Amino acid sequence: MKLSILSTVSALALVAAAPAYAQSNTSAVTQSGSGQIAAVTQTGSINGSMVTQTGTNNEADVTQSGTNASSSVAQSGTNGSGDALRNNKVTVKQSGNSAASTVVQEPGVGVDNRNRVLVEQDGDNTSSVLQAGTANGAEVHQGGGSGNNSTIDQSGALNSIGDVVDDNASAGVTQFGNNNGSSIDQNPATRAVASVFQSGDANMSSIRQETAAGSSSADASLASVSQSGLSNESTINQLSGTNPSLLDATVIQNGTDNLSSIDQSGAQNSAFVTQGGTNNASSVTQTATAPGADAIVAQNGNDNRSSVNQSAASNSANVTQNANNSVSDVKQAGTANSAKLMQSGTNNDNFIDQRLYANNNSVDVTQGGTGNAARTVQVGQRVQATDATNNQVKLVQSGSNNFSGTSQEGSGNLADIKVSGAGVSVAGRQTTGAGYRDNEPPETDVWQVSDNNKAFIDQASDASRVTIYQGLEQVTGGYELAPGSNNDANVTQTAAADNSRADVIQGGSNHTANVMQSGADNDSYLNQMGTGNTATVSQLSYGNLSTIDQSGTGNTATVTQN
Questions:
Q1: Distance between CA 326 and CA 328 in Å, rounded?
Q2: Which of 128, 218, 303, 549 is the most buried (most CB within 10 A)?
Q3: Count H helices, E strands: the chain?
Q4: pTM above 0.70?
Q5: What SS3 class is residue 16?
């Protein structure tokens, strides 16, 4: 042991005795045992440092100033006494361009290695950190210059990136400048934490947290990314099997041409994405083995796009887009899911699909602007209508020339739709099977299959159209009767809705249809096929037309025109 100490002192003395401003120097320090300290300071250009430590409670400090410096620190294994690699610490500080830092910490025996790495670089530099074992931590801070790159790879449990070495650090990887890139991989990701902050142009961050199914220490994996600037890109994959039980990802981007994609697999997933700027795109896919996934997406700018895909049950998706020409696509499978969407601007297109035993699901959509489209589908497996029950859709559209289409299978469903605004037939939208066509007025379509469904449509827009199908199933070229009874259709087209039309077609028994039109030159068509149906039409102005067609027995029709 005494010889080992002398050897260490000698090596340090050689390093300390090097000329202060030497060029092209090389330092090599090798230590084994516990409680060793290696300190290397190099000034000048094209300097190289290599530190190798084996054992526990060791510390390596490397400081380099100048260009084209390289630092390599390796801490691994056990010493001759069997001491595990534990509580080791590495600090690398480099100033100058074209510097490179590589840190490798390999695990010894036992658990809770608790090794730490801090890399600070100022210039156009690269950093690579590889840690294996448990409870390890790493931080990388890069500032200045362009083309910086940071890679961190952690394998083991309870590892973290950020707030692990420097208590005042706000992020595990910090980069300032242009063309920066950061990639983080943690596997298995049992209680793994990773955070990245980038400021500048054309930044890229990819966080990948993995875990092997069945880990006994499964807990949670957390990832956060904040980017500001132009052309930023962030991809977070938290690829777990059955563990950990909670995955959490946060991405915040400020600038233009940003792209964020979050893929989560496991249980109790949570994703939060906010983007500011133009031409942003966000895609969140959550595949959970347990219910309760949550996705929140907020976009500000023009030409934004958002897609949320959730499976299992009791999922929640909340999307807000404040821009022109935004597109949102939300798909949910299972029961007790909720989707909420808010869009403002022009020509937004929204499609929400809830299926696969879609019971007790809810959709809440608010659109303001011109030429917007909202489509909602709540269906089961199309084997039997009872696969989808007690679903509800609430839609509010304000503006002009908007379209909404709602399709619900099963019983006990609710469609509550309110439309207001000008109805001039310019740049509107209407479904055609292949898409939309222009120069059509605002339109609302509702399909409800089976029993005890309710549709409430309130339109306060000129030249509006509403069509409600209940107790009928949509087929190619039209519709056909389906088992249905006790459905309720209510249409209100107020004084602001001149030249509007309301169609209600009901198949089955004991249906109720109510149409109230208080504007002028409106048209109402009610068709009821079955028994015990009731149709009521009230038209309170001039130039209106009412047509009621009932087939079956015990039906009642009432028309009031003023």
A1: 7
A2: 218
A3: 1, 45
A4: yes
A5: helix
